[in-house]
Each structure stands twice: as structure tokens, then as C-alpha cells.
Design goal:
Blueprint lengths: L4 H32 L1 H17 L7 H28 L21 E2 L2 E2 L1 H17 L28 H17 L7 E5 L6 H14 L4 E5 H13 L8 H7 L2 E7 L6 H16 L4 E5 L3 H7 L2 H10 E5 L5 H9 L1
Parallel strand pairs: 3-6, 3-7, 4-5, 5-6
Antiparallel strand pairs: 1-2
Helix pairs in contact: 1-2, 1-4, 2-3, 5-6, 9-11, 10-11
This protein binds zinc ion (ZN).
Length: 330
């Protein structure tokens, strides 16, 4: 995936900061140990000295040099052994004085051999998703703020249960979906009228899944299509990252499908998103005010049939809770 320059620079800064922090922490531990154990300073000096002395061997004849180097090596190793013994004496771990890099592969340089280290790629990816998230006007919601008491507990004969009962089941399902999320999780389709909490639960899932360390793109259908369109037809300011992120992220959340201005482009883009992600086995959460018949009419039968065939469908029922909420507040 290609990233823009700011993201590369920011990633490099983060890696540099990580390395400096690890080195500073090691120095702080060394200072602490020095104050605890005066012998340590002498031994450290001894180690440094043995390395410095070794350089003298270049002026010696080969035999002399070999013996001298061996001598310095023993001197160095002896000092190391003595430091280890001191650490043991103070019940400190053997690696207490070593620099503890966050990445053992690249020692927080971001480079592994002649390519970017896996840790560097992870940071780039995370920054790109953070940036995509910052473009979303949607704010995360929490399951804890979901108010079941806004839903009627009167049995609705059409459904054979009360809205509150249904929503309580849906809430439990979404909570456990988020808590056990992995890239094998099913895709979800939330149906229901406006104001029944579909966005709230979609964004609660997105928030928890992001916290679990997965890459998530979440935005309204309108914004997702706008971004894709800009990327496809726009001039210059796009670096072509958005489409691969939409297609490859661990979880894609499309809010309010059907509210966008529908064109041939949005229909084709939607089919491509749904189809590609199903084929790669990646989960998507879509919520919509449309019913299946309207989806078929507005988009195409093949989109409707892929959704029905591959998505777990949750039907939200009840009265518009946003209205109830504002009446309660007013
Ligand atoms: Zn690394």
C-alpha cells in the first residue's frame, strides 16, 4: 500500500522516539544500579577499557596481537560475569541493564535488512487508518450508553415479542460480536427504521474492534462513495490509499446505506466492496433504513442476493428513540 509523505515522516518519528525511549530507560536503570552497587561503575569501565585497548593490537605482530586480543576478551568477559553476579546479588534479572527495544527484530530502527521492518509497516498502517478515521464525522458510541428503556415492552403482534425484548437480544449479539471479533466473524446487516439505534450499535462495534487492535474503516455510505469517487476521478490530492483500505481492512462499517445520492458509480462501487470483501472472507457491518425490496430496487438484485446469502440480518424494531430521547430531555 502507498502512503503519503506525512505518514512516512510521522512513522519515522515514532520509531525514533521509541528507540530513544528504550535507550534512555536502559541508561536510567544503569544509573540506578550504579548508585546501588558502586562496584558496577568500575566493572563497566573495565569493559570499555578492554575494547579500547584491543585497538592497540594493530601495531603488534600477528602472534603478539592474537595473544593480546585474547587477553582483552577474557578481561571483558570476566567483567561481564562479575556484573551478572552483582545483578543476581540484588535479585535483578540478567538482562536488567540491556536496552529493551520494542521490536527485537530491528532494535527500533524500523529497518530489517534492506527493507522496512514489520513493526514499521504496522505503524504506517495504523497511521493511515487513524487518518481515515479522522475524516469520519461519526463519533464512537459505547454499548453502555445504549438505553433499552427507550424501547417499548409491549408485545408487537407482528414480531411476537416487544421491541425491548428484540433490542435486548440484538444488543447482546452485538456485544458478543465485538468482544469475540476476528476476521472470520460474519458480516452483519442491520435493518430498521430511522432512529432505532443502528448507528449507535454499529459504531460501538467499530470502537471495540479498533481497541482490540484491528484495522477498521467506518463512515457513512455517502462519505465512503465520495472518497472513492474523488480517488477515482479527482486530480492530484489523493494518493490512492482509500480504496485498498476499504477493500482490505479487517472490519468495514458502512453507516446509513441508502442515504447517499445513488449513481451508476455508487452502485458499481457498492457491489465491488461487498463482493470483494465476501471473496476475501472479510467482515462488513452495514446498516440501512431500506428494506430488502428497496435494496433490490435501488441497487440491483445481485447486490440484494449477496447480502441475503452472506450477511447475518438483524431487524431493529420499535419507535424512533431519538424522538423519545429529545422529548425526555425537553
Ligand atoms: Zn522492527
Amino acid at each position: 500500500m502507498a502512503y503519503n509523505r506525512e505518514i512516512y515522516e510521522k512513522a519515522q518519528q515514532m520509531i525514533d522516539a521509541r528507540r530513544e525511549k528504550a535507550e534512555q530507560n536502559a541508561e536510567a536503570r544503569a544509573r540506578l544500579f550504579d548508585s546501588l552497587e558502586p562496584e558496577y561503575g568500575k566493572l563497566r569501565q573495565e569493559m570499555i577499557q578492554s575494547v579500547k585497548e584491543a585497538i592497540k593490537s594493530i601495531d603488534m605482530n600477528p602472534e603478539e596481537a592474537a595473544a593480546f586480543l585474547q587477553q582483552q576478551k577474557i578481561r571483558n568477559l570476566t567483567a561481564q560475569q562479575q556484573i551478572k553476579a552483582l545483578l543476581q546479588k540484588h535479585d535483578l534479572p540478567e538482562d536488567y541493564l540491556e536496552v529493551k527495544y520494542a521490536c527485537p527484530v530491528c532494535h527500533d530502527t524500523g529497518i530489517d535488512g534492506n527493507r522496512l521492518c514489520e513493526c514499521h509497516l504496522e505503524i504506517l498502517k495504523k497511521l493511515a487508518y487513524d487518518e481515515a478515521g479522522s475524516k469520519s464525522p461519526l463519533k464512537f458510541c459505547r454499548f453502555g450508553d445504549f438505553r433499552l428503556d427507550y424501547y417499548s415492552d409491549k408485545v408487537n403482534p407482528d414480531y411476537g415479542c416487544s421491541p425491548r425484548q428484540r433490542m435486548s437480544e440484538i444488543l447482546d449479539y452485538c456485544k458478543s460480536y465485538a468482544a469475540t471479533f476476528d476476521t472470520d466473524s460474519p458480516s452483519l446487516l442491520f435493518f430498521g427504521e430511522t432512529g432505532l439505534g443502528k448507528t449507535h450499535l454499529s459504531l460501538s462495534i467499530a470502537g471495540e474492534v479498533i481497541n482490540a487492535g484491528y484495522s477498521v474503516i467506518y463512515n457513512s455510505a455517502q462519505n465512503i462513495f465520495n472518497e472513492l469517487q474523488k480517488e477515482r476521478f479527482g486530480k492530484g490530492d489523493s494518493d490512492g490509499r482509500f480504496e485498498p483500505m476499504v477493500l482490505e481492512c479487517d472490519l468495514l462499517v458502512i453507516d446509513d446505506l441508502g442515504a447517499e445520492f445513488s449513481t451508476q458509480f455508487t452502485n458499481a462501487a457498492l457491489y465491488n466492496i461487498i463482493n470483494t470483501r465476501i471473496n476475501s472472507g472479510l467482515p462488513t457491518v452495514i446498516n440501512t433504513n431500506l428494506n430488502m425490496k428497496e435494496i433490490e430496487e435501488r441497487y440491483t438484485r445481485r447486490i440484494a442476493s449477496r447480502l441475503i446469502g452472506e450477511y447475518a440480518v438483524l431487524n431493529f424494531i420499535g419507535d424512533d428513540v431519538r424522538q423519545i430521547r429529545s422529548e425526555n430531555n425537553g
